[in-house]
Amino acid sequence: MLKTEDIQIRDPFIVPVESAGTYYMYGSTDKNIWGKGTGFDVYVSRDLEMWEGPFPVFRPPGDFFADNNFWAPEVYSYQGRYYMFATFRRRDNQLLGTAVLAADSMMGPFHPHSDGPVTPSDWSSLDGSLHIDEEGQPWMVFCHEWQQITDGQVCAVRLSDDLKQAQGDPVLLFSASEAPWTTPLASDKVLVGDNYVTDGPYLFKGEDGRLFMLWASFIHRSYALGIAVSASGKVTGPWMNEPEPLYSNDGGHGMLFRTFEGKLMLTIHTPNKTPLERPIFIEVEESNGKLRVTGS
């Protein structure tokens, strides 16, 4: 068994299964996630404090389209199977893209489902997240990477019902610099141009039906997590960014889930530095159409 503070992981994603009293934690689990990708693991817990694992859930086949940068797996139950949305760096053009994997069990093994990335082949894209709209149509919300376009974007694209391919062109939801709280990416000593980062979008429907988005960027050299709200309640927005980040203490790429006791919980990784990153869990309150951190 491992304590939460002993697990090196980035981009933690929790799937609670109440019938089994079990939490499954996926994430970027390679020791050096900036290099060669070996696959993804899962950890299993009953209390979010002690964990069993890691258990391998994906290892790439020999003809897989990528061998570097295996990032940010998110797992969803959909039409009787489990689908993993994860980011990989393509072999053919060295661009990032989000692909879909599938399995019959949350413990895997997951196998390629889409024919490579479902993001545009000439875009550097990452952190795809599944959203099912009010009509039952699957969408993927993802980032168009700042390293390709300077001002990172959050976009959405319709998916086919089988989740194997995109349908139509992506829709721009907003750019990173539009949020009041973001600042340009900077190193410890110098400003790196006017580059604005978008990372890890995750959609969450509030108790009153309001559609929230968590997404990460930087504020004064610190990794941070912001909130946007859809004015229409639809994935296509328009999206309004809150003036202040939800969390700004060098942590981000978050998602929300409810514990078996009904608490709304945020998980992020912090600090944003390999190999020190760890998952943490913070209680969040939803009140009057706002989300705020109440835990430490």
Note down, in words, how this protein is organized:
The chain has 1 helix and 21 strands. It has 296 residues and is mainly beta. It has a single domain (2-293), classed as Tachylectin-2, Chain A (5 Propeller), CATH 2.115.10.20. Strand 2 and strand 3 (22-28) form a beta hairpin. The longest helix has 4 residues, at 146-149. The model has no long low-confidence stretch (mean pLDDT 95). Pathway: Glycan metabolism; L-arabinan degradation. Pfam families: Glyco_hydro_43 (PF04616). Belongs to the glycosyl hydrolase 43 family. This is Glycoside hydrolase family 43 protein. It comes from Paenibacillus sepulcri.
Keywords for this entry:
single chain; 296 residues; mainly beta; Tachylectin-2, Chain A; five-stranded antiparallel sheet; four-stranded antiparallel sheet; 1 helix; 21 strands
Shape: globular
- Indicate the mean pLDDT: 95
Low-confidence stretches: none
Q: Beta fraction of the residues?
A: over 45%
| CATH topology category name | Tachylectin-2, Chain A
Total strand count, please? 21
